[in-house]
Amino acid sequence: MVKKDTNKSYSWVGFGNIFLITVYLLSVIVTTAKADPPNPDVGDCFSYGYTESGDHIFLIDSNKSVFGDYLTIKHNCDYIEVLVNGNFTAYTEENKLIIPVDFGLQNITILSNNYSYSVTNLTVFPDRLTWEYEYNQWMTGDYTLEQFIELSKAQTRENTASIVSIIIVFSLVTFVYWNLINSYIDRNYCEEVIS
After folding, report:
1. 41 within 8 A of 112, measured Cβ to Cβ
2. CATH fold for the domain made of 47-127
3. Can you give the pTM of this predicted structure?
4. Which residues, 6 or more positions from 173, have their beta carbon under 8 angstroms from its beta carbon?
5. DSSP assignment of 30-58
6. 56-59 and 104-112: which strand pairing?
7. Assign residue 85 a region: left if phi > 0, alpha if psi is -120 to 50, beta otherwise?
8. Could you give the CA distance from residue 143 to residue 188 in angstroms, rounded to a whole number?
9. Which of 24, 75, 114, 124 pairs as cysteine with 47 (C-beta 3.0–4.6 A)?
């Protein structure tokens, strides 16, 4: 007669090693979204730009996407000139400059004495939800009311879709239960025919 060993020892050390390796690999694989701080080429002049959306601040850099309606540029130069898509946009001798920025793909250049900082392929998205932006565009544009659905029509469509969904689900559930009951009766009961 062989006696079973009832002492079970679990090795949490192996689990800990697997956990640590997984955390390490995930930290290597998962990257964070960031923009590197701009490095001035020469001189003591330094500038950077960012946009804001809610509580978030997005540094501008080449080939990046940002959210916001206004571009804020801070610098310690004597003056700066800002060119957006090659067109002169602003000039200031103050340390901070806030300018409105168009949505879409932008190329921004900041110029000063012996200093140039360029940002290319910067994609700017609006500082709000898309539908809210379209609503504001409709309020200021020349759109007609026929392009938007009325509230009563939207509620009617919603109610119709709900009723049709209920009918479809009821039909499918009834069909499935009917087939299950029939198959159960066919397998478990036999009918006796008396003539």
Report:
1. no
2. Immunoglobulin-like (2.60.40)
3. 0.47
4. none
5. ------PPP--SSSS--EEEEEEETTEEE
6. unpaired
7. left
8. 68
9. 75
Location of structure tokens 């103050």: 94
Q: What is the pLDDT of residues 41-66, one digit of tens each?
A: 556 788 899 998 877 888 999 999 88
The token duo for 183 is: 């198959």
**pLDDT tens-digit profile of 106-124?**
999 999 888 889 999 998 8
The token duo for 12 is 């949490």
